[in-house]
Amino acid sequence: MKLKSILSLVCITAMLLACGNDKSESSKDTMVSNETVAFNYNVEQFADIKVLRYQVPGWEQLTLKEQKLVYYLVQAGLSGRDIMWDQNYRHNLKIRKALENIYTNYRGDKSTENWNAFETYLKRVWFSNGIHHHYSNDKIKPTFSSDYLNELLKETNTVLEGEAFNVLFNDKDSKKVNQAKNVDNVALSAINFYGPNVTNNDVERFYKAKKSPNPDKPLSYGLNSQLVKENGVLKERVYKSGGLYGDAIDEIVKWLELAKGVAENEAQGDALGLLIKFYKTGDLQTWDDYNVAWTAATDGNIDYINSFIEVYNDPLGYRGSYETIVQINDFDMSQKMKVVADNAQWFEDNSTLMDAHKKKNVVGVTYKVVNVAGEAGDASPSTPIGVNLPNANWIRAAVGSKSVSLGNITNAYNNAASSGRLKEFVHDDEEFELEEKYGQLGDKLHTALHEVIGHASGQLNPGVGETKETLKNYASTLEEGRADLVALYYLYNPKLQELGLVDDWKAVGKATYDGYIRNGLMMQLIRLNLGDDVEEAHMRNRQWISAWVFEKGKKDNVIEKVKRDGKTYFNINNYEKLHELFGQLLRETQRIKSEGDFAAVEALVEGYGVKVDKEIHAEVLERNKQFNSAPYSGFVNPILVADKNDNGEIESIKVAQPETFAGQMLNYSKQYSFLPEVN
Question: Domain spans of the chain?
Fold first, then answer.
């Protein structure tokens, strides 16, 4: 499970920073050494996006062998970059190639409003790995005309025609992932996980017929394939060597084999071997074998995430998006946060879950703070700040899971942050001071508890199917909300102080509760256009949690809606009662998951998480106009530069930084394009 920018959503000021608008038309990926220039986290801002840089602390402390392992894993990740583009939409690669060719070859007037609009559009497409917004899933609309694009195509001898051209300007394929109620979500989603004639019923019928060899260890059917209909017959196109995306996968395998050769230990090497086997065969039993081995491989300074993992982009929750993150252990912070994992059983035993839904033996939960060395696919440029894997419930129950917080990503957000927007939306000075003093610590603990305790907690009732089957299009938001509720319940608990994690548990809890309600009921609305429903899974869960406790607490005035000088604020009057309400909702969400209660999850999400108070939304958008900082942030990746001797052997590896976002995107297209335009 992925904690998608929780930092920005619980304490949104960490993502809503002001930065310069440093645009460049250069296609060269000029590098700035960390050693010679004071580090600048800001790259540029355009549309609703800020692009940042992150550092890689601890790089010099790694041995050359460890640095090679990181280098090979990063290269493997980037080699599959185009898979994510094609998964996101069937015309993305063709469109990107055409737009990039225009960008690098156009010699006309670049001072016009039209050219600026074209450049901004291309950068938005780069940031979203395609023509649909990375967060809202809406198709990104060009602010230049089709006539102007035709002019650019002609002047640069570029070809883009037919549906791939028309879709940029028409209403077709308007939603990458459509999670609306009572519609055919598959048919109305542009995501390229399914053929054009495949429906919800087709998917459900196809996978209902699949039976795992061991029902207690269900295979992740559909995770690594595209489901298409040929002559009326449904069939899977499997992602593997010799199969769909085979050319890119072969390149991934090449680098993974080099990584295996410099593995830190036998367990790590064995896991890499199984991942290679999975890529070669596409076999889902091998995928489970790999996840068991990877979860158990906890020793070493280097770890990674690589393959088809998170299912948020599938409206029915079967298919995994390509994603990689390469990680270096942050030794100091990991030791401090290890205490959370060591006490996982205490948290489970003392939760509000029904006894039948509690795990009697929470096993194998490992938690580390890591520093990212490179990301690709669904993790870049927009990155999570915390990850808990594997996703298979039976592996989590039998073997455990790995949880990580991406420390240098969080640090980059914090170092680039501004408090202006926070001041606008806090109810009073006390709330602001709590956030300033305890907000960052609360965010770190929220991430740890969400990932380590939240996703690891609870169990399904005997005979209940996998959540994606029982809760369908609501599975992702229910799971993320459930993990959030675990974190929220324990963030206001003296146990945190007893464990030495905080000096003032009440202050930390209050700051976190303030931030969560403020964001869930107001601040995250800056990401939506007026009149839009909430669609993204994480945004939905923050709204349905906040709206539910607000409504249930009205009788006791737990959360007060305050109007002052024409502005709305939400003020928490009773933190103890709010803590109880979070516990009640946690119990219910676990019951829904454990029993597979679709009617209940539909009522919860649709009743509290989808519709927006239009009056408050309009007010929030108006109040937000005074701020120049964009609501979304993402990153360019550091560049690992390998120095080789005459025999081609790596002698040293340096970390450098890209100067421009455009430069890195063009360089990636030049070096890591292994797929045809149509797959």
Answer: 2-14+331-368+376-630, 31-170+633-671
